[in-house]
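## Example record

The block below lists the input lines for one assembly entry, exactly as stored, with component labels intact.
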Amino acid sequence: MSDGGLSIRAQVLLWTAQRASAVVLAVCVIIHLVTIIYAVRNGLSAAEILGRTRGSYAWAGFYAIFVAAVAVHAPIGLRSVLSESFNWRGASLDIAVMVMALALALWGFRAVYSVFI
Amino acid sequence: MAASSTLAVSVWRGKESGRFQTFEVPRHESQTVLDVVTHIQRALDSTLSYRFSCRVGMCGSCAMNVNGRARWTCRTHVAEVAAGDRLEITPLANLPVIKDLVTDMTPFFDKWAKARGRFQGGRTRGHDFARVLPESRERRLADAAIECIGCGVCYSSCDVVTWNPDYLGPAALNRAWTLLNDVRDTDNRARLGAVAGDAGCHACHTHMNCTERCPMKLAPTASIAGLKRAAALAALKGELGDAVTK
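Predicted C-alpha cells for the full assembly:
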C-alpha cells in the first residue's frame, strides 16, 4: 500500500503522532481559554499580556509545547485532507506538509520567543 | 397499505453514465423493494438487470441504493422507505456499474484478498483440535464481527472509499480483525502490515456509516478501531513491516 511515499510503519507513526498531539492540544486549549477568560476580566492590553509572559519560563514552556503540538497535529491532518480532496499522494505531498510543519513551528516559536524576551 | 395506490419508481438505467427511468408499480401489503424491482423486470421492462438470490436476507446479493441509502432490497419494506409514494433505486455506490442495478463486486473482494482475509493455519491433520475457549477475549472479539456475509452495503456507504479508492473499506478490515483475533491464525504479522496505513485502517474517519447501515448489525468501526490500536502498537515496537505479498 506504500505509494512511493512513506513506508507503512511511517504512515502509522504519523497517525499515532496526530492522536498523541491531539491529547496535548486538548489540555493546552483548555488552559489557554481559561487564561484568556481570566486575563480579560479587567480589559485586555498588550502591557498586561507581556507583563505575564515576559521572563516567565513557565508560560514560555507551556506555549512552546502548544506550538510543538500544533506543528505536529495540523500538517498530518492537512495531509489527509489534501490526499482525499485532491487525490494528491506520494512524496510531493509529504514534502509539502513537512514544509508546513516547519513553517508553523518557526512562526510559533518566534511568537513565543517574542513575548518571552 | 392500500393495494389500490401506485408507486413512482425511478430506476437507474445504463452503466456509469445513464439516466433514470420511471415506472408506475402497484403497491401491495408487505411489499419489499425487491418485489418492486422484480415486478418491473417481469411485467414492465424485461431488459432491466438486477441481482438477487435468496430473497430472505441470507446471501446479501440484492443490495442496492434505495432513496440514497444502501440496503438489502429483500429485507426492506416499501412502507418503510417510500417517501410520498416515490422510490429511487440505484446500484451500490463506490463500485463499477455493469448494467442498471448490477455492480461489479471485483474491487470489493480484491480488497479482502489485499487485507489477507484468508485464514492461514499452522496445523496439520496430525495435530489435535485447537482449543479456543468461548469466553476468551479473542473469541468474543472475533464472534462480534464474524457474521459478515459480504453484501457490500458498508463499502457502498463509506465516504472514505469514495474519497480514497485505494482504501480497503469496512468489510475487508472487519474480516482482517476477525482473523487477527483467531488464535489459530499464523499470518497476523503480515496481515497487520497489509491493513495498516493510509489505504488501510488508519484512513478511517470513524464516520460510522458502515456500522449504522450494516444489515447484520455488525460494527466494522469497532473492528477498525481495534486494528488501528494493534497496528499502532506494532509500529511503536518496530514490528510492523510493509505488506508481504504471497
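Residues 8-39 of chain A form the longest helix (32 residues). The domain at 8-116 of chain A is CATH 1.20.1300.10 (3 helical TM bundles of succinate and fumarate reductases).
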